[in-house]
Design a protein that fits this description.
Elements: H1 2-14, H2 24-42, E1 47-50, E2 53-56, E3 59-66, H3 70-77, H4 79-95, E4 102-107, E5 110-118
Helix pairs in contact: 3-4
């Protein structure tokens, strides 16, 4: 019983309640360490192997996205409609990244895409 409760509590700390995406706390507690480890491992390595082949000079892609003029949605249609927009936008972002990547909601209408082991292309 406690095991399930602990898991639920742990997830509630790192997940956004509205979109069920990871949140800023997840980024600060886990992703920063993951990125630092990636940088340390990749120093002096010419390539990093992946299931689909070699990626020369593999990188982390960090993309900050916000919804322009989102306040207008809340003002014109109410916060419930704004919440629906955020939920749908979160689903769209999740569908557009690989399973190994992360999508976070870091603030009101601000999202962060973390693309792991990617290239400039």
């Amino acid at each position: 019983m406690y095991c399930g409760l602990n898991k639920t509590l742990s997830e509630s700390v790192i997940k956004d309640a509205l979109t069920n995406l990871y949140n800023r706390h997840y980024f600060e507690q886990f992703l920063i360490k993951d990125i630092e480890e990636f940088i340390n491992r990749s120093r002096g390595v010419k390539h990093i192997e992946r299931r689909l082949g070699d990626i020369k000079a593999a990188k982390y892609g960090l993309f900050m996205i916000d919804i322009d003029y989102f306040k207008r949605v809340n003002d014109a249609f109410g916060h419930h409609s704004g919440d629906l927009v955020l939920q749908q936008f979160a689903k769209i972002l999740e569908q557009q990244v690989r399973r190994s990547d992360d999508v976070l909601r870091v603030g009101g209408e601000e999202f962060l895409l973390v693309l792991k082991l990617t290239t400039d292309e």
